Amino acid sequence: MKLDQFPEAIRPRLIPKPDGEMIYRCLGCRKEHGIETLLYTCPDCGSVLLLHDRRFERLKAIDGGTWRKILDYRRMLKDPAVKGIYRYHEFIGPVIPLSSVVYLGEGHTPVVEANAHLQAKAGIRFFYKNDGQNPSASFKDRGMASALSYINFLIQEGHVDEVLSICASTGDTSAAAALYAAYLKPKIKSAVLLPHKKVTPQQLSQPLGSGADVFEIPGVFDDCMKVVEALSERYNVALLNSKNAWRILGQESYSYEIAQDFDYAMADKVVVVPIGNAGNITAVMSGFLKFFEAGIIDALPKIVGVQSVHANPVYRYYRQPEDGQRKFVPMTVKPSVAQAAMIGNPVSMPRVIHLVERYNRVAGDLRVFFAEVTEQDIMDWQLTANRNGHIACTHGGESLAGLMKAMQNGDVDSKETAIVDSTAHALKFAGFQDMYFQDSFPDGYAVRPNPDLVNRPRYVRPESIEKFPEAGRPLEGEAFDRFVDAVSGQIAESLDLKKKV
């Protein structure tokens, strides 16, 4: 629709203009800092930062019903700048003009309801939100669209010149960072650090294809992160990990889309996400809090954060007694099929602690829960989901396994409706499926195949015929007819097909 076709009362609000007063706020010393400089930690105390709009109260002057109309009508606009995460411009990056927005097709990912068979097996109505259908095939594009739009804005305003973006990654972050940086060449160049031999071939191919400088180093993600942090402290680079508060801001769009897709009715909803570096669960909590405070939703949904037993420092933290004496202890991770979640010292842990307390307090009840699952659970539920029409990655399997565990723990009721996060496309982690089908997982994963879920190709080469077609040497005539009859007959027998009468 064109702008002049919308209701006159809503029309002036559909194309957002720069507004608000964004600042960095430290979660440690609570000091505030301007956004004209790229900051990742507080210059005074070194703690992590959250972005805050000092003029957020202005958004409350618009009633919730009007906001819902604005967002629903804005969804119909053709302007690329508001087709993605900046459909929620006032809540994500209100100071950024639309001319600075980088849009590559991210956001507005589908919410797909599980079929009746899978819902019966799970014992609850649930949907997958398929964030693997973002441009680089993972949810990380949401945060990169925000971070790179902000950097593009700084360049246009003359605050920075040429920029080298850099990140540590288990795969998806590097793919998204390299893709968005490539779109802004030559103003921005990209470098990524990966743990050697701990990224799938599909994920490794992405930053290489986007032209990034790719460095593999010994160790795991946590080791890569320490190197990147050292580089960002000593050199003039733009850090694109979730330590970057603009990344968190962009990922809030995930919660806004869920609210909009369910007509803003969140009272009986449960949102399940893997934790990993803890940026996603941070963003989801922050996003729902903003929509609640603005009156767009009238209830805060439950949130379930999920971790594998092989990388579960956040789960362990919240297993401690709630007496004000909890202590976060980083851990040494073990191999996990949910590679992006294989993080023993999440950068955003201080944000998690801050926002969990605030979320539960605002809700007036316990609304954030944590679940621990096994590697076996992750693989079994991923394959089960995909056998029922989904394209869930291993992290999608982790989320669904987490939903099952939350129900067992009594944290989620079967009468509620769950939205389960599949953070990336299944094809990125096809190697783990192959290992499952071939029973070739190394012992460190503790995964053994369930025969009912194993699927392998069957080679059909009937012994009753002597000649077979080859590339460049096709069969013809009677020889080809015999080949077709023999092969089709063997397949029909294998499938127990009944002949037509």
Automatic annotation (TrEMBL):
Gene Ontology biological process: threonine biosynthetic process
Superkingdom to which the source organism belongs: Bacteria
Swiss-Prot/TrEMBL cofactor(s): pyridoxal 5'-phosphate
EC number assigned by the record: 4.2.3.1
Top-tier EC class: lyase
Gene Ontology terms for molecular function: pyridoxal phosphate binding; threonine synthase activity
Tryptophan synthase beta chain-like PALP domain span: 104-417
Pfam families assigned to the protein according to its UniProt record, in alphabetical order: PALP
Pathway(s) this gene product operates in, as recorded in its UniProt entry: Amino-acid biosynthesis; L-threonine biosynthesis; L-threonine from L-aspartate: step 5/5
Amino-acid biosynthesis keyword on record: yes
InterPro entries: Ser/Thr_deHydtase_PyrdxlP-BS, Thr_synthase-like, Threonine_Synthase, TrpB-like_PALP, TrpB-like_PALP_sf
SUPFAM superfamilies named in the record: Tryptophan synthase beta subunit-like PLP-dependent enzymes
Catalysed reactions, as listed in the record: O-phospho-L-homoserine + H2O = L-threonine + phosphate
N6-(pyridoxal phosphate)lysine sites (modified residues): 140
Family: Belongs to the threonine synthase family.
PANTHER family assigned to the protein according to its UniProt record, in alphabetical order: THREONINE SYNTHASE FAMILY MEMBER, THREONINE SYNTHASE-LIKE 2
Protein name (database record): Threonine synthase
Organism: Desulfosarcina widdelii
